[in-house]
Amino acid sequence: MNNVYENNMRFVPLLKFLDKYKKSIIFILSLVLVAATYFVISNQISKQNHENAAKIYKNLLLEIELEDQDIEKINDLVQNLLTDYGKTGYTQVALLKKASLDANNKNFSSALKNYYDLISITDGFNGNKIFNKLARVNAARIHISNQEYDKALNLIEKYSSSSTNAYIHELTGDILVKKNKNELALAQYELASDKYSDEASKSIISMKIANLGI
Question: Is residue 60 a contact partner of residue 74, using CB atoms and an 8 Å limit?
Fold first, then answer.
């Protein structure tokens, strides 16, 4: 009998603790349950979104590969991806492909729209830096061809203002030359020359520097 009493007494502190903090414990357990439920549901939604995006992307590729392309259908498929599945990699690749297709067809306004859409969904801390950089560089090149040099600079300033790859520094230098800012262009060309590893690219940069006449 004493053993039973002693065993029961062992649980008294625990029971008192549970009674004292039962509201907090229930609240914490509820939070854990909600978080776990949210995690499971989010994973299921993400998986379903990727599957749906993959189907649309597959149809897009089939349409692009046709000799007689239906541009309106292609636009609809890309817009569908952007509207409903903007966070998937399929949308990023689709926008890049569509922009390249537009540029090849000399439809530069549509190409710019797709590049800017790609920039928008790949910007930020959790964005895709590779696609973001590609979109910015390609959009900047279109602006350069349109003699919109300030717009071009604004697009790539994010990368050219700090140490980045050689081509972006070279491209920035080219834009600055067109704006008659040769000293700033020289600084960008020198950064490009330091980063290029092949002699052919270094030689091209050397010629551009020589043409500055500084």
Answer: yes
Q: What separation, in Å, do the N-terminal and C-terminal C-alpha atoms of the chain show?
A: 102
- Say if CB 142 and CB 173 are below 8 A apart: no
* Tokens representing residue 207 in the block: 């010629």
How far is residue 199 from each of residues 202, 204, 205, measured CA to CA in Å?
5, 9, 10
Q: Collapsing DSSP states into helix, strand and coil, what is residue 147?
A: coil
In which residue are the tokens 């729209």 written? 113
Report how far Cα 202 is from the mean position of its chain's Cα atoms: 30
Tell me the pTM.
Answer: 0.76
Handedness of CA 151, 152, 158, 160 (dihedral sign): negative
Reading the chain (214 residues) residue by residue, the pLDDT tens digits are: 444 444 555 556 655 665 666 677 677 777 777 777 666 665 666 678 889 999 999 999 999 999 888 999 999 999 999 999 988 999 999 999 999 999 999 999 999 999 999 999 999 888 899 999 999 999 999 999 999 999 999 999 888 776 668 999 999 999 999 999 999 999 999 999 999 999 999 999 999 999 998 7
Question: To the nearest 5 percent, what fractions of the chain are helix, strand and coil?
Answer: 85, 0, 15
DSSP-derived letter for residue 1 is -
Q: Is 65 exposed, middle or buried (0-12, 13-18, 19+ CB in 10 A)?
A: exposed
